[in-house]
Write a structure and sequence with these properties.
This protein is α+β, with helices and mostly antiparallel strands. The chain has six helices and 14 strands.
Length: 332
């Protein structure tokens, strides 16, 4: 079983997933996922994947439009107990959690930027359904929804998919956001993310896109070139409280943004991840769920790893201009 171990200095948890790779040869440089050849995510190959957890099918049920399956090689296992234990000065627990794959389309070569708007809405709806379901398991404290597109971003299969990992702890990166947001609220009695939205919408220099429900910003202290965030305009702490109309609005702005990134950056590999409140904590006035979209354009090297500083060669204001002026198929 995988094991979670805590760094005694920083309190950061690490997953020791020994089942995923043990020998030096397991760490050969990864290859770009192949477009051709056998694909377990394609229609007709359903028997080669674990049994689906959730699916979207048309009225007759004959063909699926989207499937959610357990990851065949999970970093955490859903069965068992945490069994927290001490190991001298160290703390550890069993690698309990859930690891799911959202197969976003039947089409092997479809990219999310080019999918029909309704299909992107189905993907977001699947995120919502799976999040609500995992929230019922009180062993889990946090669920991270994320997407890796391209080998440089960590994708091992070309067929478009996202992933969801439910954890028995709150990740340190998320906890730092929660702590900072709560500190700001305790001092000013306002949500820091709402303050950011008010200032940036008034200034306009870092606003890439907006619609009735969402805003795309280039964050003021962007860590990476062309990093963008998608935030609800109205205060909303928890992703699971998204409404049906917001799902479609979110799909429109996500498609628009991904098309602009594809056009401006020549179809880059990228990651996105949804940051929201921990599973067992409800809505509040101090946090604001959001999506962080990060194209993989630079490498994190020794200085960044050693210092925690990031070097971004593209000011977010300049990135905003490039993205805002990009020509896409049409506005959504």
């Amino acid at each position: 079983m995988p094991e979670l171990r805590q760094d005694p200095v920083t309190s950061r948890w690490v997953i020791i997933a020994s089942e995923r790779g043990r020998r030096p040869t397991d760490f050969e440089p990864a290859q770009e996922p192949e477009r051709g050849g056998f694909c377990p995510f394609c229609p007709g190959n359903e028997s080669t994947t674990p049994r689906e957890i959730y699916a979207v099918r048309p009225g007759d049920g004959a063909n699926w439009e989207l499937r959610v399956i357990p990851n065949k090689f999970p970093v955490l296992q859903v069965e068992g107990n945490l069994d927290r234990a001490g190991d001298g000065i160290y703390d550890k627990m069993n690698g309990l959690g859930a690891h799911e794959v959202i197969i976003e389309s039947r089409e092997h070569n479809a990219q999310m930027a080019d999918m029909p708007l309704e299909q992107i809405a189905r993907v977001i709806g699947a995120y919502h359904e799976r999040y609500i379901d995992l929230k019922r398991d009180f062993r889990f404290r946090y669920a991270l929804i994320f997407k890796n597109q391209g080998e440089a971003a960590g994708a091992s299969l070309y067929h478009s998919h996202s992933q969801l990992i439910a954890l028995p702890v709150v990740p340190k990166r998320v906890q730092e956001e929660l702590t900072g947001a709560k500190r700001h609220f305790d001092y000013k009695e306002r949500c820091i993310f709402c303050d950011m939205l008010r200032q940036d919408l008034k200034d306009g220099a870092r606003v890439v896109l907006e619609n009735e429900d969402f805003v795309v910003l280039s964050p003021y202290a962007a860590r990476f070139p062309f990093e963008t965030w998608i935030l609800p305009k109205a205060h909303q702490a928890c992703f699971e409280t998204i409404s049906a109309s917001q799902i479609h609005s979110f799909a429109r702005i996500l498609k628009n943004l991904l098309q602009r990134l594809k056009r401006v950056l020549n179809d880059p590999p990228f990651n996105y991840m949804i940051h929201t409140m921990p599973l067992q904590e409800g809505p509040n006035d101090y946090y604001h769920w959001h999506v962080e979209v990060i194209p993989k354009l630079t490498k994190v090297a020794g200085f960044e790893w050693g210092s925690g500083f990031y070097i971004n060669p593209t000011p977010p204001e300049e990135a905003t201009v490039f993205l805002r002026e990009a020509r896409v198929e049409r506005e959504f």
